[in-house]
């Protein structure tokens, strides 16, 4: 099983089929990262 995780908030965005456990980091989960 593969897991796509938000790079900003670490929330799981999506799961996908894979032979082994894979974590990928992506953007675009809808979170608004606070920038100073």
Keywords, please?
3 strands; 36 residues
- Secondary structure class reads mainly beta
Report the principal-axis shape.
elongated
**Most strands sheet:** 3 strands, mixed
Number of domains: 1
Query: What is the count of helical runs?
Result: 0
Poorly predicted ranges (pLDDT <50, ≥5 residues)?
none
Distance between the termini: 36 Å
Mean pLDDT score, rounded? 85
What is the strand and helix layout of this fold?
Elements: E1 2-6, E2 12-16, E3 22-26
Parallel strand pairs: 1-3
Antiparallel strand pairs: 1-2
Pfam families: SR1P
InterPro entries: SR1P
Organism: Salirhabdus euzebyi
Walk me through this protein's architecture.
The protein is mostly beta strands and 36 residues long. It has one domain. 0% of the residues lie in helices and 42% in strands. The chain is built from no helices and 3 strands. It has strands at 2-6, 12-16, 22-26. A hairpin with a 5-residue loop joins strand 1 and strand 2 (12-16). The radius of gyration is 11 Å and the shape is elongated. It starts with a strand and ends in a 10-residue tail after the last strand. The model has no long low-confidence stretch (mean pLDDT 85). It holds the Pfam family SR1P.
């Amino acid at each position: 099983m593969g897991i796509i995780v938000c790079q900003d908030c670490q929330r799981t965005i999506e799961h996908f089929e894979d032979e082994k456990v894979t974590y990928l980091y992506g953007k675009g989960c809808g979170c608004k990262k606070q920038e100073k």
